[in-house]
Description:
Elements: E1 2-6, H1 10-22, E2 26-30, H2 33-42, E3 47-51, E4 53-54, E5 57-58, H3 63-69, E6 74-79, H4 84-92, E7 97-100, H5 105-118, E8 124-126, E9 129-132, E10 137-140, E11 143-145, H6 149-160, H7 168-175, H8 185-202, E12 207-210, E13 214-217
Amino acid sequence: MRILIIEDEITLTKTLAEGLGELNYQADVAENLKDGEYYISIRNYDLVLVDWMLPDGNGVDIIAPVKAKSPRTAVVILSAREEKEYEIEALRAGADDYIKKPFEFDVLVARIEARLRFGGTNLIEIESLTINPDEEKITYNGEEIELKGKPFEVLTHLARHRDQIVSKEQLLDAIWEEPELVTPNVIEVAINQIRQKMDKPLNIATIETIRRRGYRFCYPKNS
Length: 223
């Protein structure tokens, strides 16, 4: 599960990121709305934790772009504001939860777990092809395909952005936790695995190489 934390209190941000990391959540951190919007544009998140008051604006303003990209992504507002009017405003703006500061970390985790349980389906269904990111499972005409790890994540990311050309750099940034430590060749290896383990046996094409630009999800298309 991947979580985006948008919070300008450095100590709190560190506590949240480290604590969630120990619970096997992948946590990205942004200190303002602008950086948060950038992360949202390049990655898919299961949940966004965002502070109400940020240096460049109101955390509630991030709800609309998050939901526009992925309606199932939960948005939880963190706020030091005690007045009920702010909680009502956040929930009416589309927030899935509102947590007042200060809070206990274990309570926050319980609320996060609850929101993730209530999330909508994450299935990607395109004609006879079904990709289930939650279970790391692919089926084609009811038959399960053996594709795991990074190749699965690359396929899933491209399928979620199937109307776009996605560069190697964007794939690295979206999928690898430390993209600066790996070479773009890992993308080519993942794409080759997809073609060898899935496309070739099924006689389909799922990923198109766009020379000098990147890759695009192209299913359905006969190979």
